Each structure stands twice: as C-alpha cells, then as structure tokens.
Amino acid sequence: MPVPDRTTARFLDIHVVQSIPFANLNRDDNNSVKTVRYGDTERTRVSSQSWKRAVREYYQDNFGEQALRTRRIGARVTRLLEEEHGWPAELAQRAGQHIAAGSSIKFETAKDSPVITTNAMVYVPETAVAELAALAAAHRTDLENAKDIKKTTDKSVLPKDAIDAILRSRNGIINLFGRMLAEVDDAGVDGAVQVAHALTTHPTDVELDYFSAVDDVTSAWGDTTGSAHMGHAEFSAGVFYRYATVDLADLAHNLGDDHAAARELAAGFAEAFILSIPRAKKTATAPHTIPDLAHIAVRSDRPLSYAAAFEQPVLSRDHGGYAAASRAALARYATAANKLLAGRGTVAAGWASLEEKDLAGLGTRVDSFSGLIDTAIEAAFAPAPVKAGA
C-alpha cells in the first residue's frame, strides 16, 4: 500500500462482502427477519446495533478487555461482595442498593424485590464493579448502620461524587463505541466508530421453516401420535455488504492523543468487524462463514461507503450465484467513485479475498485479513511527510 503525500490520515474505512447461508442473524419484535427496500427490491438486513454487539463480544473475547452495560449495577456489586469479599447476604444486598441509589442516575424500586435498578443503563469497564465494591467496603460501617433502600425518596449513605467518578471511567471498548449517559456529568463519550446496517447485495425472500419436536417417551412407546411441540421460524440467506469506519482523530481524542493505544484499538476493531458474526439462532443455523472479501481504505478527508454499488441489485445469471458478482460490483463502483473524486482523500487501499481474479480499484492485494489490517494500520498511523521548505 503506497502512501502518497497527504495530511494526517483521518478515517479507516472497512468494506466487507460476506455470504451468509440459511440464518436469521437479527430479528425484529415479531421474531421476523429484518428487511429493507433498496433499489426497489426487498433485501435482508442486519442492524448496526446487532453487528456492533457481535464486534464488542469478539473484541472482549479476543483482546481481554471487558465492558459492562446494565441497569443492575447494584446487583452486580452485591454478588461480588458476597462471593469474593465474604459479606453477609443482607449487608451485601444493602450495599448494592446504596450503590444503585447513590449516583446521579435516578433509580427504581420493585414491590416484591430488594433489587434496585438504575433508570438508565450504565456502561462501564468491568473493573468498575470491583471499584464500586471497594467503595462500599470503605464505608462498611455506614452501611451496617444504614437502612435498606425501599422507595425512590430514600437517600444513599455513600458519596455520590465517588460513585459518579467510577461511572465516568472508560476503557478501549467505550472509547471506540462511545457512551450515552446524560445523567452523570462528563460521562458521555462520542463514539469513534460508525457502523452501517448490513444489507444483501441482491433481492431476498424470507423463508418459513416449519418444525416439530418429538416426545422421546411417546416415540419409544408408540402408544399415541402427534408431536410435543410445533412451530415455525423465519430465515433468509444471501450475500451481504457490510461497512464501518473509524474516525482516527476522534479515537485519538478519546484516548488523550495516545496514538499507540489508538493504533492498537483501530487494529483490534478492524479484526473484530471483519471476523465477527451475530449469534442469533446460532445453535439452529451455525452460519459461521468468513467474508468473501475485505477491503480497507485509509482516507484523509471523509468516509466513503460503497453501499450504492448495490442500489441496482446484483444478478446471478452470469455467475450461478451472487458472491462473485458482488465482489465485481464493489470493485467497479470503487473504481468509478475514486475516478469521480480524482483520487482525492485516498491515503492507501488494499484488499484480501477468496477471489482469484484481480479486482482493480480496490488497491493492493494482500494474502490474508491479518496482513491487510497490519498494512492499513501502518499506513494510517505513518507520520505525515514533511513538505519541502517546511
């Protein structure tokens, strides 16, 4: 990936073409396949929220950095105090109540439960739970003398400022994806990552799968007929275009201009986005494919999605499938778009794929996804060349 004279790289655009077999990666409130009408045809869609969760889970599983989103932060602290600190159950329960009730976030009580929940989800590093437990331990005497929180007007004996300070803490995951927590001053984090809804490059039909469950005793005895349970579920299959971009300047800002950390996070996100897959109905469909193609472009001016390559749906008649046609359509659009922009903004570009043919317009071919990521990150974080006379 040659790096021309440029200003500092700003965006890391990641484009993926991926074939997904019979599956339902992301359901709506009726358990139906999510769809979108695009180019006057119905496509299967996977929401950005669904794939972002898959990316977060992949990142946490593979890079060891955990984050926690929950309204039950108090209950989480209660369990830690009981299981790891040996607190009596009643006192640990009270501590969790006072943690949940003690921040700037409003809270709710339940009529038949001692558990207190926050009105808004908190999004914190997993290490925040231990910090909150340590705060409770430092005020154990106050908690032993305090009353249980039973209504929303009850006050916590724990210091609000100290709880809020812990709720403001963040790690790489939060610096990447951002955080909305308006109730706590200065807890919000602008996300550095933008993820598009994935959609198929071609029209799709939703399939209804009828199923029944056999009662093993009835089957063995043969004394009656019929199934133990019957039902149906929706599925579809297709070739998806996926797109995400990382704002490298925003990421560096979130990290206090720690460019080494930004580099590591950007590389980790690229790997997670390319290789992750949502887990809905995984036990019934096992749709564990890898992308047919990944293309990464480093840009200095603005992000550039290639979704419009598929506004005219891909046809299968010339290829006997949609994958090869989708890869070719992406390359054609990239060539046309970069020609129209006169190459403006492109710092570096490369691709890795199952495709045997050359795909002009996508930059330099790289043998592996890991090699593609390494080369793109190297280009993105290379120092800007010094201009003559500077």
Gross geometry: flat
- Please compute the radius of gyration using only Cα atoms: 26 Å
CA-to-CA gap between the ends? 26 Å
- Determine the strand fraction and express it as a percent band: 15-25%
Q: Which structural class is indicated by helix and strand composition?
A: alpha+beta
Order of helices and strands: EEEHEHHEEEHHHHEEEHEHHHEHEEH
Number of strands: 14
In the predicted model, the low-confidence regions spanning at least 5 consecutive residues are 1-7
Mean pLDDT metric: 92
Tally of DSSP helical segments: 13
Quaternary organisation: single chain
Protein name: Type I-E CRISPR-associated protein Cas7/Cse4/CasC
Pfam family, one: Cas_CT1975
What attributes characterize this protein structure?
single chain, 390 residues, alpha+beta, 2 domains, 10-stranded mixed sheet, 13 helices, 14 strands
Account of the protein in words:
- The protein has 390 residues and is α+β, with helices and mostly antiparallel strands.
- The protein has two domains: 214 residues, no CATH class; 103 residues, no CATH class.
- The protein is 36% helix and 23% strand.
- Strands 1, 2, 3, 8, 9, 10, 11, 12, 13 and 14 form a ten-stranded mixed β-sheet that branches. A two-stranded antiparallel sheet has the order 4-7. Strands 5-6 form a two-stranded antiparallel ribbon.
- Strand 5 and strand 6 form a beta hairpin.
- Helix 2 runs antiparallel to helix 3, helix 2 packs across helix 4 and helix 4 runs antiparallel to helix 6.
- The longest helix is centred in the last third of the chain and has 18 residues.
- The protein starts with 10 loop residues before the first strand and ends in a 10-residue tail after the last helix.
- The N terminus is likely disordered.
- This is Type I-E CRISPR-associated protein Cas7/Cse4/CasC.
- InterPro entries: CRISPR-assoc_prot_CT1975.
